[in-house]
Amino acid sequence: MNEVLPQLNELLFSSVEGVLVESVEVIDTVVRVEARTTARRATCPGCGCWSGRIHGSYLRFPRDLPTAGKFVVVSLRVRRFVCEEESCERMTFAEQVRSLTRRFGRRTERLRSTLVAVGLALAGRAGARMTDALKVPVSRNTLLRLIASLPDPATPVPRVAGVDEYTQRKGRVYGTVLVDVETRRPVDLLPDREADTLAVWLAERPGIEIVCRDRAPFFAEGATRGAPQALQVADRWHLWHNLGEAAEKCVYRQRGCLRPTPAQPEEPQEEAEPAASPWPTGHRFAERTRAKHATIHALLAAGHSKPSVARQFGMTLNTILRFSRAATAEAGRFAANHNRSAPARRQPGPLRAGSSPTPTLYPKATGSSSKPSWPIAPS
DNA sequence: CTTGATTCAAGCGCATGGGC
DNA sequence: GCCCATGCGCTTGAATCAAG
């Protein structure tokens, strides 16, 4: 056996210095490797000083990469050293084996890097299934945590920066996502969607030549202040989105010109009333708006004031007024979008530096509503 | 110097809830 | 049904202290 151990040592820890294999035992599906550290000294993680004064030792059981399809557990005896530096806060410290262990680590570094590679390639659930096949099973949460703990990769300053908002919790918490439009890769995430935050981020990257954004006033202001040298353009998605909304509302306004479909004699007639709504039954948005409309009317009927209802819903008073005047939720919804056409609005389209849409048309992120739709220019 | 007991904190798996 | 964030409780390593 003594002749085999050096070969096992070379096989199992060829890239690890300071570890000596003492025995290898196979129990069913588990390979248990007993090993110990051999270094005479270790550096204190607190002060960085070397110490050779041993305080004690204990066993650690880091999981390792599988061997021949069997789970491998290393029974590693590590020592605790006494830190002899008087100014150091630590009295003792445990030694770590470079490229094998880390503080609080329950896996060897090579197993950790393998799991990171699986996580990066397959992400949570698929990655977890793959680790089962690789005989190193971990949960999907563990893979995601490993990826999250990686340092952020260095990203070059984009020439064309895409700016849009994202939601951490829909209707409540919004942030800003920045994308390199040319490589189509995300560059950074900002914790909010404030003009100041975006302006600071852009000002730190003077190489940006074009800012591609939606028409939110806080993005317009942030881009104008932070990257005055950059050309600001509207992104394609919002142009199509605005166009689609405009077409939808135009058709709705002219619905009176549409000839009614001849009633089919065999179909039940009681369905005629719900069909008057442009929203499909069961649609989440439609049901939510109908419920909101009914609740607002109920509260007003119960004697609550409109400002009080507005506070309870986290809406502006104008929105409550529109709902209170509307006989149906559908009327309230479209009144909410169409009755605001009094001030002149800009058409969607390329935006020059310094230009910004009318700020009052886009409510601030107050944590009360979901992302509002953009107002449409009057036809 | 060694050993054992104790406490604290990090790592981990699981359950749950919200959003889509 | 899937994805993701979050919280909870358990396990285990780190750190400290006391006793032999």
TrEMBL record:
Domain named Transposase IS204/IS1001/IS1096/IS1165 zinc-finger: residues: 41-85
Pfam families named among the record's database cross-references: DDE_Tnp_ISL3 (PF01610), Zn_ribbon_ISL3 (PF14690)
Region (Disordered): 261-282, 334-379
Residue ranges occupied by any Transposase IS204/IS1001/IS1096/IS1165 DDE domain in the UniProt entry: 162-255
Stretches assigned to coiled coil: none
Top-level taxonomic group: Bacteria
The protein's name in its UniProt record: ISL3 family transposase
Source species of the chain: Streptomyces olivochromogenes
Lineage: Bacteria, Bacillati, Actinomycetota, Actinomycetes, Kitasatosporales
